[in-house]
Amino acid sequence: MVLCLLFAAATFSLCAAEDSTVSTANSAATNSSEPQPYIRVTKPDTNTVQLDIALRKFIPVSGTGPAIWLAGTAHLGEPEYYHTLQKFLDAQTVVLFEGVNARAHPRKVPKPGASAEPEPDLPSEPKTSEGTNTAYSLQPELAKSLGLVFQLDAIDYDRTNFLNSDLSIFDIQKLMLDDPKAMPAQPGQPGRSSATFDALLQIMDGSSFLGSIYKWMVQYIGRSPELQATTRLMFVQMLGDLTGDMAEMRGAPPELQHLLKVLIEKRNQNVVEDLKTELAIVPADGSIAVFYGTGHMPDLEKRVVHELHYRPVEDKWYTAFGADIRKTGMSAAQVQWLEKLIKAEMEMMK
Question: What pTM, to 2 d.p., does this model score?
Fold first, then answer.
């Protein structure tokens, strides 16, 4: 249980479902001060539980200007989910996407009056922030063990309308130190650093003792069909309960609260600044999609509404992945008990 909760935190990231993968509906968020959820759990039949994720369209209150889509995503999913997302993103004028290794993604969308040449690295900034096990990454390994695919492997980012809109790992390390003049050390090297953020990086790349345990457990999940199905079910339920602003999870330890605020709020602030730049370039009949993990969306929506003066008008719901309850080997009573346990754990974190 604890393992899966940490997975859910690391990879940020209850009605009848439609028959198709994608459904469209008018947003109920229009008259609400709080954003409506970007995640829902649906049950198309008694044996299937699915995780659906919303893409929400916003238009200017003034009536003139490009549309903005907050395109929430799960970092693990079915191939068809990413195939459908790719078609949607390719149809947008500009896509601002998440990718903390920002320096690895050259800008292909020209700035006003500039060419589309890649931007050079800052001379004083380290180009990498890797642990000791760079050949391994937790998320693609977890996707494989669950019979899913990893977002970075499934989405083609080599598109002329794709623009990285994220901070680098180095930038995040500086923000974690609360000192704009600080020069943080790389993980595993002497100097100032954030123990919480370093621990997360080392878990993700398997370079720490805890990371090696995670690696072993992730690989073990893939060897058992029952464990694989049960873990998928737990993921659907846990992610489905991750509603609201993750940066406001008061039940988390102070160090984790600070990490979530940096990972969500500071990166979202960077996205909004990029949105302001692109809104001045994109034609009024164009569109800008913000392609980020769903954990960013509630805070991003508040910024889009209050800072950019946009309003929500439409939702598209895509099914990321699901779980077949029959494959878990659990009875209906056991499944119900597990759902209640997960809900209680998530409520404690909030």
Answer: 0.76
